[in-house]
Amino acid sequence: MPFAVYILASQRNGTLYVGVTRDLGRRVEQHRAGLGSAFTRRYGVIRLVYAEAFDRAEDAIAREKQVKGWNRAWKLKLIEAANPDWLEISADL
User: Fold this and answer.
1) How many Å apart are CA 69 and CA 90, to the nearest integer?
2) Which of 2, 40, 50, 75 could potentially form a cystine with 45 if both were Cys, beta carbons 3.0 to 4.6 Å apart?
3) The dihedral of CA 55, 56, 57, 63: what is its sign?
C-alpha cells in the first residue's frame, strides 16, 4: 500500500482521527507508542478501524482533506460500511 488514508478510533463511536501516510504500519505503531500526533496521544485514539489505499500521494491527500471535511455522521457511515463491528484492522492491508 504505497499511500493510505486511515481512520483511528478510541473505541466504537468514540473519538476519531483521520490521517494520511506512505507507510501505514509504521504510522499506526507511532500512534500507539504515543509518537503520533498530540491529538491521538491525548485522547487515546489508537485503534485502526478504516484504511483506503492510493497509488498517488496527490490522490491520498485529496481524499484525506475530503474525509476530514465531512461531518461525524458521514465518517461513521464510512467506517461502518467497511467495518460494521469496528474491529481493529491490520495495518498490513
Assistant:
1) 25
2) 40
3) negative
pLDDT tens for 53-89 read 999 999 999 999 999 999 999 999 999 999 999 999 9
Structural domains of the chain, ranges and CATH numbers in brackets: 3-82 (3.40.1440.10)
pLDDT tens for 3-36 read 999 999 999 999 999 999 999 999 999 999 999 8
Kindly list the strands in the beta sheet with 3-9, ordered across the sheet, starting from the edge strand earlier in the chain: 16-21, 3-9, 47-54
Rounded to whole angstroms, how far apart are CA atoms 32 and 68?
21
The torsion region of residue 68 among left (phi > 0), alpha (psi -120 to 50) and beta comes to alpha
